[in-house]
Amino acid sequence: MPILTSSNYQRPKWLFNGHLETIYPAVFRKVALIQPEKERILTSDRDFLELDWYRQKSQKLVIISHGLEGNSTRPYMLGMARIFLKNQFDVVTWNYRGCGSELNHQPIFYHSGATYDLDEVVRRSLQDYAEIHLVGFSLGGNLTLKYLGEKQGSLPELRKAVAISVPLDLASSSKKISSPENKLYSERFLKTLREKVIRKAQHFPDAIPAHELRNIKTLADFDDYFTGPLHGFQDSEDYYAQNSSLYFLDKIQIPTLILNAQNDPFLSRECFPSKWVRELDFVYAEYPKYGGHVGFTSVKKGDPYYSERRAFEFISSDL
To answer: How far is residue 32's CA from residue 83's CA, in Å, rounded to a whole number?
Structure first.
């Protein structure tokens, strides 16, 4: 499939680097959307997930998955939901464990490869829809791609997918986000992750070693002490190796678009595979020169963001 290293995305001139392209929409973008219908579904391990439904009696559904420490109401989630709602799709956005209105009931949190929870959302959606599409941002993009690789086309209701700003290789991306120039981002993530560990440890002191927080300096440290062991992996290295979506791309059996900006401050060079991806039957890749991380701000105020327009174009295409 084609690799588009130059696309028609043009960034606003005043967003002149990847950091500004990343920070501006995260901090200043506002998206007005109708109030969703909220649902809490029970998981197979007696936990719960919180879903936000936007229904308009469509036969087509888009499931949107958020990024690290995000939630169902982030502007990028609502912006993506809005373009599909305007084009006669139903939409559901969902919260990972601990990212909704309250902490979840089990000791585990969420992670980049927790496809069992995405599967719960898909299975719930199959009750009402025979045509389902997936959109994932960042961590949610990795989750989406890994899930599709695991399913290998076994769910005919899944038709197309789009993954945006995806850390395809978790190990190298973890190093990239913890580099000195990205300290602002990594510290922001670590702050809320530490807070969740402290709160969770109050309920599960034997399962969650909160005292190890003193050893956490980077996201890789957090994955070493918490994400990895808590979810059944030996350490961060084992966690990254087993959950990087890069290793699942060749198993994907539905048309899937990867949209990664070359100036994304979070993504390592391993997140832009080219030569061998060209040989895949179902995976398309677009690597615009600009866009930042979960950015792709529109030049004209009020227009859909480029990532939203591309997601809709791809999913509504005849591929």
So the answer is: 12
